Amino acid sequence: MSTTAQPGQSAVIASPRVTLDRVVAVVNGDLILESDLDEESRMAAFQPFGERAATTREQLIDRLIDRYLILQQIRLQPPQPISDTQLDAELTVLRKSIPECADCDSDAGWQRFVLTQGFTLEQLRGRWRERMEVLRFVEARFRMGIRISQAEIDAYYKKTLLPAYREERATPPAEAAIADRIQEILLQQQVDKLLDDWLTSLRAEGSVKIVKSGEELP
Question: Over the stretch 47-90, which tens digit does the pLDDT of each residue have?
Fold first, then answer.
């Protein structure tokens, strides 16, 4: 993929990516293709704050299966669409949080970085909008109603944070100074547990098949 430079502009070239497509999984009739795995892998470059967790092929497939299950549930009761204003606001923050892209503050620098990852700007916008829809769904379904008690915050501070600081021989902050952060961590842990249990039940109730190399679909 490449773009032709206009007079007075530098050429922006993205390396061509060719993926031989085959079905790697079927989720309630929706196909996950080899090209979807390739795209998911390349999206790691846009993880907020430069988070780069090593991901195996099996983990990529599981991640896509989970996303397809969530998107299928979203389609049953379509929510209010993510607006362009909301999307632009998130992408503006994202552009400032990728260390590898020193000139992403400029539109030209951002376009070069996106193209280098094998996406057009419009493709990335579509993927990021979908990501926002999934996160909003998870937030609305699982986060509401969860309450973290002061006793839970105290226990996490004493049993998890203090030992970690002692191990590093560092001075721990006062509990009151980081209570909000502890609450957020505990809240996210509960959301993740509820989400994992729900996705497990969706897999059991539905039809999810991982297609091995050389295996033919029925």
Answer: 754 445 557 999 999 999 999 999 999 999 888 999 999 999 99
Query: Which residue in 97, 105, 116, 96 sits closest to 49, CA to CA?
Result: 97
Is residue 208 within 8 A of residue 26, CB to CB? The reply is yes
How many CB atoms are closer than 10 A to CB 32? 22
Q: Which residues contact 97 (CB under 8 A, 6 or more apart)?
A: 48, 49, 50
pLDDT digits (tens, 9 = 90+) for 126-163: 999 999 999 899 988 998 889 999 999 999 999 998 99
Rounded average pLDDT over 97-117: 89
Residue 32 DSSP label: E
| CA–CA distance, 196 with 130 (Å, rounded to integer) | 20
> What is the residue extent of each domain of the chain?
23-210
In terms of pTM, does the model score above 0.90? no
Asked if 28 and 22 count as a contact pair (C-beta separation under 8 A), the reply is no
Residue 134, helix vs strand vs coil: helix
- H helices of the chain, in order, are 34-42, 57-76, 84-95, 107-116, 121-138, 150-156, 162-167, 175-205
The yes or no reply on domain 23-210 and CATH 3.40.190.10 is no
Q: How far apart are alpha carbons 38 and 117 in whole angstroms?
A: 11
